Amino acid sequence: MAAEYIPSFNCGCKGIRTCLRCEAQKSKHLLQENDQIHYFTYDPLSKTAVREEETGARQSFVFPGIFLWENFVSEDEERELTARMDQDVWKESQSGRRKQDFGPKVNFKKQRVRVGGFTGLPAISRLLVDRMSKAPQLASFKPVEQCNLDYDPVRGSAIDPHLDDSWLWGEHLVTINLLSDTVLTMSLDQGCGGMDHGEVRVAVHLPRRSLVVLYGEARHRWKHAIHRKDIHGRRVCSTFRELSAEFLQGGEQEKLGSELLDIALSFKGAPL
Ligand SMILES: O=C(O)CCC(=O)C(=O)O
Questions:
Q1: Phi first, then psi: what are they for 2, rounded to 5°?
Q2: Which residues line ligand 1 (CB under 6 A)?
Q3: What is the pLDDT, as a whole number, of residue 234?
Q4: I need a labelling partner for 46 at 20 to 30 A (CA). Which of 63, 154, 164, 264 fits?
């Protein structure tokens, strides 16, 4: 097991996480990558992952659970959204990211959630939430959390491959990508299909001002990450999360869920 690393820099990294400000001090073994990786690119038209082999042969497989909406916000809206975010404080986070959170106070390890100081999603998001509900996948999507992340190549910002929690968060993860294009990398550690050995990675290109939804297999089976090499300029994103069935009508924690939703959708929020 990796020894716990306490950063001596003014960054937010803990444990095995790193950014350009702290990783020169981390041991090499923490930074090693799996060298057997099968690389694919996601094609949004055919909803398949494809790759050209050296022989010229084309390999592909169906990749379900991604919905991409290009030009979801206009250039003017992007300017207004990011200017508004920059009026609030950005908190240092892991792996060179900065963040602003609008959501309930959660302890995922103990599976505890409470209102805490949550005052709702920001006012400027009302229009975005209304617009996203026009997508068939999001017709009944009711976000209860918005997390803004700020990535910068100067800090070596990234987010490691992970699956989002599914005790509290529901089926759809919705992200709006602002200020620069990037790549969302979907990965399966143990391979799939004909590629039984090594990791499989699928690059999903996210144009600036687009919205992406992860659901189904892309939400629950494939990990997602933003690698440092894919951050070419400042990138800001807003991720919206909904509640799981346990917190919705008929669920054990329906009452708390309904309280959280009322607060979230009052759109009176300030970051926590
Ligand atoms: O930056 C992104 O697009 C992904 C963010 C993410 O995976 C997360 O907040 O859990």
A1: -70, 140
A2: 147, 149, 159, 164, 175, 184, 224, 226, 237, 239
A3: 98
A4: 164
When divided into structural domains, the chain yields a total of 2
Range of the domain at 217: 36-264
> Which residue do the tokens 């999001």 mark?
138
Q: Within its chain, how far is the Cα of 179 from the centroid?
A: 16
Pair (253, 138) in one structural domain? yes
Element (H, E) at 37: strand 37-43
The model's pTM is 0.90
Nearest alpha-carbon partner for 185 in 139, 245, 247, 231: 231
Distance 211 CA to ligand 1 centre (A): 12
pLDDT digits (tens, 9 = 90+) for 6-40: 555 678 888 878 899 887 776 554 545 556 899 99
The DSSP 8-state label assigned to residue 27 in this structure reads: -
CATH number of the domain encompassing residue 225: 2.60.120.590
In a domain, 76, yes or no: yes
